[in-house]
Design a protein that fits this description.
Layout lengths: L4 H6 L8 H17 L3 H27 L24 H21 L4 H6 L10 H4 L16 H8 L2 H17 L2 E2 L4 E2 L11 H13 L3 H14 L5 H6 L3
Antiparallel strand pairs: 1-2
Amino acid sequence: MKIEPYNYFFHPCHEDHSTVVKVVAVITALALSILTLGLYLGIFLCVRGLEEGSLKEKKVKVISKTPPKKRIAPKKVSAGPSSQGVILTPKAALIKSKHAESLALIKRLSREVGGWKKISDHRNPGAIGYDWWLFPIDRSSSYGMTYAVDEADIAALKSHQAFMESYREGVIWVTRSWGWNVVTGHDETCPERMWSDYQVRLGKMLCSLKLFGEVALHQKVVAFANKHVVNKQDWVVQACVL
């Protein structure tokens, strides 16, 4: 794992640091403060103060330049190569934002000891829930239709190139936690990454891939399910069929 010197010395508890790096960075900061008779601590506080001041100044500038909000009805817009001009529905915008957060968290956990198990199965200790955001579906849940997408949401997200690239990446990372390389179709099962028979997540992934028209990726996940999933639940069996 690459460690940025600036974050190591001035942001010892940075989110990109592993637990070990955080502890060592904090100890380093304390040791430097003692050895320099407080000089390092003064520099540390000065740098952090300048950062906070800069952030506040940027926020003020953004607020002052932001025009009054206008209510715009969602409409379909043809997406260009960089997804500029795409207007997302409110729910599609929420999913796009939460999807990015969830994918970033998954990548961070994959670098931690025992992190893959927290990704693979929502029932494991310390596991995270991300199915609603990584694999949007049109099915109701215990929350009703709160997290379900409709045709307008799906159309908006499909027209957003950057989201769709991130969407496919999410499938790759989650299937990897199950010990499967969905890109090559190779079985990579190992003690850290293996199938845990958590069919709820698999079923949502398959249903979502069908909704978003990801036929090729859907078939690759089906290949995994046919090899590793014994006694598939009925709705998972249906999700395997295009």
